[in-house]
Amino acid sequence: MTNFIKTSDLATAELEKLLAEADEFKSGSHSSKPLAEKSVALVFFNPSLRTRASMQVGICELGGNPVILEPGGTSWTLEHREGVVMDGDKTEHLKEFVQVLERYVSAIGVRTFAELKDWETERTDPILNAFAKYATKPIINLESAMHHPCQAMADMMTIRERFGTEKKKVLLTWAWHPKPLPMAVPNSFALAAAQFGHDLRIAHPKGYELDDDLLSEIERHASDTGGSVEFTNDVNAAFDGAEVVYAKSWGSKLFYGAAEKDIEYRAKFRADWIVDEANMSRTDDAIFMHCLPVRRNVIVTDGVIDSARSVVIDEAENRLHVQKAIMTKLIK
Ligand code: CP
Q1: pLDDT at 9
Q2: Which ligand 1 atom sits nearest the alpha carbon of residue 46?
Q3: What is the pLDDT of residues 52-88, one digit of tens each?
Q4: By C-alpha distance, which of 151, 175, 155 is closest to 294?
């Protein structure tokens, strides 16, 4: 394991070991300081509460020193493309940025959201991959255009805390949101759910299909692990019998780069595509999951997120434990 870019960088058995180690961190039985005398850079191109706080705390708890950088804010604006004439608004090239930084630190965590401008480019995760290309130290994906693997690992840990290692009927459902959002969270949740052998149902209105190559990868993993994947555009049928409901909104590839068209198209889905008490009543007493931040009474009603079936705060806590396990494995 040299980088942690997406969960499928690792076999399910390796992911299982990470979850076992995360359990040890959570129970307090793992008190080693593998990052003593080491620093880890955390590069945030975008805002964060959970990722930033949990990484910073986790690095300190492992004995290390977090170095937080915000390109364009507390550090120089960055160019990632090769061979460009840098006569615009970018001050430093990622090539120097990474090479300099890794003279100081033992690993680099990167948050770089999709810009929601050009699907064919962004689906290749160009900025994160530029970090991986120039670095000789480990790169940890803290949410890129296509993947949020630390979130997905915390999600898998949270499902196991409630249900043990049994495979479950897991619904990933699109929800209405006033504007298009990136696909990293649904991509990574679906991929990890397939790697852990769950029976996954993906529900969204027509036009909100995830990336074709990623869906093929998800189906391959489901086939290997004895899980399954099915798709529906019927929000009512989607909830039938689900044991886990994972809500997230994302943008349409059909309108990528044209937010106002997506906003106009999605307006008709507002009333039905929300996780409310009526939808949850069709499930098999499902738990409710969301990566947070979440818009209350838009994605999910107060009644659902404040209910005993909501595990959103546990998911957020588990970010700390899984990331400590990931850093312990990755950073030598
Ligand atoms: N879930 C998540 O990544 O939260 P933040 O954006 O606050 O880090």
Answers
A1: 95
A2: 6
A3: 999 999 999 999 999 999 999 999 999 999 999 999 9
A4: 175
Ligand 1 center–CA 143 separation, angstroms: 8
Token representation of residue 117: 């401008």
Residue 116, amino acid: L
pLDDT value of residue 149: 98
Q: How far is residue 290's CA from residue 310's CA, in Å, rounded to a whole number?
A: 9
Which spans in 180-258 are helix H?
Answer: 184-195, 212-225, 235-238
Distance of CA 263 to the CA centre of its chain: 23
Label residues 219-244 b or e (16+ Cβ within 10 Å = b): eebbeebebbbeebeebeebbeebbb
3-state secondary structure of 12: helix
Ligand 1 midpoint to CA 224 (Å): 30
Locus of tokens 């120097």: 96
What is the residue type of 121? T
**What's residue 210's pLDDT?**
98
pLDDT for 30: 85
Which has the closest alpha carbon to 199: 208, 190, 210?
Answer: 190
- Name the token pair of 36: 């003593």
- Count of CB atoms situated within 10 Å of the CB of 40: 26
The rounded distance, in Å, linking the Cα atoms of 124 and 133 is 13
Q: Which residues of the chain fall short of a pLDDT of 70?
A: none
> Which tokens sit at 212?
């074709």
Give the number of other CB atoms < 10 A from CB of residue 131.
Answer: 26
How far is 35 from 230, CA to CA, in rounded Å? 42
Pairwise CA distance, residues 304 & 63, whole Å? 38
Closest protein CA for atom 1 of ligand 1: 291
CA-nearest residue for atom 6, ligand 1, is 48
pTM summary value? 0.98
CA separation for the pair 44, 7 (Å, rounded): 21
Cα gap 323→56, rounded to integer Å? 10
pLDDT of 1 reads: 72
DSSP 8-state symbol, 71: B
